[in-house]
Amino acid sequence: MSQLTSATPKKEVGGHVVVVPYPSQGHINPLLQFAKRLASKGIKATIATTHYTVSSICAPQVGVEPISDGFDQGGFAEAKREDLYIESFKSNGSKTLSQVIKKYLDTSNPVSCIVYDSFLPWALDVAKQHGLYGASFFTNSATICNIFCRIHHGLLTLPVNIEDMPLLVPGLPPLNFHDLPTFVRFPQSNPAYLAMKLNQYSNLDKADWIFDNTFEELEGEEARSVSQQWPGKLIGPMVPSAYLDGRIKGDKGYGSSLWKPLSGECIEWLETKPEKSVVYISFGSMVSLTAEQMEELAQGFKESNLHFLWVVRASQLDQLPKWFTDSTKEKGLIVSWCNQLEVLEHKAIGCFVTHCGWNSTLEGLSLGVPMVGVPQWADQLTDAKYIEEIWEVGVRAKEDDKGIVRKEEIIKCLKQVMEGERSQEIKKNAIKWKKSAKKAVSEGGSSDKNIDEFVNSLMSSKDN
Ligand code: UDP
């Protein structure tokens, strides 16, 4: 048992965890939040992220180290191809992560554990080469983990047949074809991403811990029914503490932004709007909508005659119809990026039109905001099913045969969530889930207990 001297800072009693996210906004956010949560419990936490994203990190509670994906100037955009990027990150990332571990070897707090994004299974190999603990962190729902884990273990075979729907998967509700992740519906659509999703399980038997950003009440059954192959501990929602338990002082944002948020402008504008009158629209950091889809959405927002705050990333501005901005000046604000949590928390927000990325879904649930799901690809389709049918905190906009959500559908969905018959029920459920998310991460909650268990094992292994 090591003796702590009075000079030993409390923050350094529990070993040293290096956290390695996949370098996109939807992955950096939850992993950085986990690092901050560990730091708040006395563990030294360092985030190791790519040269291209390292300057976006602003979280004084955690250390920061750059590693290389081989595209130090432009990241994924420089690589352009998924397979090339994934391979390059593996070879360059393994080397540079090793260097980070070596850098701390002769310090008072050498690295004891690597918490890595499940998209980066090579980081577990690096941890094991150095004799360290390794913990895999899944950033998507337990439902999605369940599905891909079964495919990896041959318990579910691809391609699934549309005639065999609904798909019956233990622990999950019956899934129709349009509820399935894109890579399951159309395995050939993106072989590199499908391979990455399956690779998450390739060496998982060597991991000392598996974490998932979800919580017991939300998805306990979905996780348990695959726990033999995937014994994941549910530790979410990884949303800044100020919006949930409030135990981490001043924790109002994730501490990373790949684009500059127009926070002041959004809040100033929202302040002038009546309570629960504004529709907030965001498709996250990756989705690109076609001009046709943008036109339909624009028409729908205009004709619904509601106030709206729409995040249109700079790369998407060209697709926004020319007539739109001028003719909706009175009703709407368009920004290139915002602080989504600050917006969702604002009393003027009445509904969240979302692409159903997992972080956005958890944020909507945690802040109790009713949602209109307009999922585009990957896991978003399955998340949308849960939003509408299982948690009943919103509705899902239906696409036509061309895969486009038409303006009439948008108007109908907004009505249902903002003022329709179902809106009262949806609002009630949204508040119920908000309370349950808060309980999970508060002291003694299911997620908090799982995090404490991890922290205690790290602390005791350091002491022994
Ligand atoms: N986000 C933000 N500002 C915006 C739009 C999105 O801060 O204007 C954040 C949002 O809060 C979430 C993340 O970006 O944490 C997006 O992650 P998500 O999983 O929802 O979608 P992805 O971008 O991975 O598709």
Automatic annotation (TrEMBL):
Organism taxonomic ancestry: Eukaryota, Viridiplantae, Streptophyta, Embryophyta, Tracheophyta
InterPro entries: Glyco_transf_N (IPR058980), UDP_glucos_trans (IPR002213), UDP_glycos_trans_CS (IPR035595)
Key words of the record: Glycosyltransferase, Transferase
Protein name (record): Glycosyltransferase
Homology family: Belongs to the UDP-glycosyltransferase family.
GO aspect biological process, one term: monocarboxylic acid metabolic process
Domain (Glycosyltransferase N-terminal) ranges: 17-61
GO molecular function: quercetin 3-O-glucosyltransferase activity; quercetin 7-O-glucosyltransferase activity
Enzyme Commission numbers on file: 2.4.1.-
Organism of origin: Acer yangbiense
SUPFAM superfamilies found in the cross-reference section: UDP-Glycosyltransferase/glycogen phosphorylase (SSF53756)
